[in-house]
Amino acid sequence: MTTDRRLTWLLGSSALSNLGDGIGKVAFPLLGASLTRDPLLIAGLSATAFLPWLLFALISGALVDRVDRRKAMLLANTSRAIIVGALAVLVLLDATSIWLLYAMALLIGTVETIADSAAQALIPAVVDKAGLESANSKLQSAEIVGQTFLGGPLGGVTFAVFAALPFLLNSAGFAIAAILLLAIRGNYRPKTTGPAPKLRVQLAEGVSWVRKRPLMVQLVAFAAALALTSELAQALLVLYALEDLGLTSAAFGVFALVGGAGGLIGAAVAPRLTKLLSRRTVLTAAVAGCAVAFGVMGVVYEPVAGALLFGVFAASVVTVNVIIGALRHALIPEHLFGRVLGVWRTAVWGAIPLGALLGGILAAWLSTRAVFLISGALQLGLAGTLWVVLARHENSIETLGEEPALSGPSPSSSPGSGESAPAPGESAPAGA
After folding, report:
1. 414-423, pLDDT tens digit by residue?
2. pTM of the entire structure?
3. Which of 46, 154, 204, 226 is 20 to 30 A (C-alpha) from 28?
4. Which helix (H) or strand (E) holds 22?
5. How many helices (H) does the chain have, and how many strands (E)?
6. Which key words tag this protein in UniProt (predicted)?
């Protein structure tokens, strides 16, 4: 099978699993809002969904570097189909509570750490380095189409029909995503030169690789800060739409659709922008776009204006993710990718629960609108900081990680650390 076809199957599976994610990410908060309007509990639901990244991302990344990554994705999607299917049955039986939603969100999030890490690690196996930015753009597009452009409206409309329907569709999306992975042939287990090292040794290698590279450390710190500051407001999006803008559950799905359209625009223009302007300029401008969008959302009262601003935020944050994703794939050796991604997502996605809880506390103390203003102001500060920091690494950023010290093999010499496997024939949250 050619590289393009393997990438097509991977993107198709990703789009369907993200369709399930998108339906769930609208249906979960809507179900939660039908049980309570406490902003802290609603924000806590979002925090719980991302908590597994803080707890298990390192371990999941190490596991992904020990097993066939395609099979890991297949098993994870099958597991998610079963978990969400069980939730649909409980909703049908009217046997839900806010605490049950917390438990289900934790389970689904835990399995997601495997699925997403494996999907990211598969990309360098199906495209060469020159195609990384394009492949990341396509993966972001598949995520946006699945999660927001289709999943968001479907989640809102089907929840309005009857509460269990979006969860049934969610389960079906994960199941079909697993089936599509069967079309990808080949062995996608990282090649090693000896017996697999102990898990703690592999974890240490990932941490050590990041720690010795100042650019990677600074990218992780920036992405974590962006994830935290944007999640302050994002965790409260359902309350902002339902209470501040006065939308219905079905209209909330349309609100998410506008965000999806913005995200698609961001995914489409990001590779083109980096050919016209420096990556430093595009990244900084995109973060500033996130800041302005959320800041202005805090003062508008018109639903259409609020939705359009959310679309601007989505376009900006996807532009950030496309560029950072391509840099990450270019900088990280293939055999270490799962572990380094585990370090990345422990910091970045681990910041999301903290941002969600802080957003809930601030909303209870001040208001939802005030949280959007605070989030925008903090992200504007991040944009300025990023411009200064990237000036020190402009050559590495603009050459997409071609600096030998960054793209070379891991300095680790521990047994079984492995060589970069030959290619067998060769997304979010902010900063994903």
Report:
1. 222 222 222 2
2. 0.67
3. 226
4. helix 3-35
5. 18, 0
6. Cell membrane, Membrane, Transmembrane, Transmembrane helix, Transport
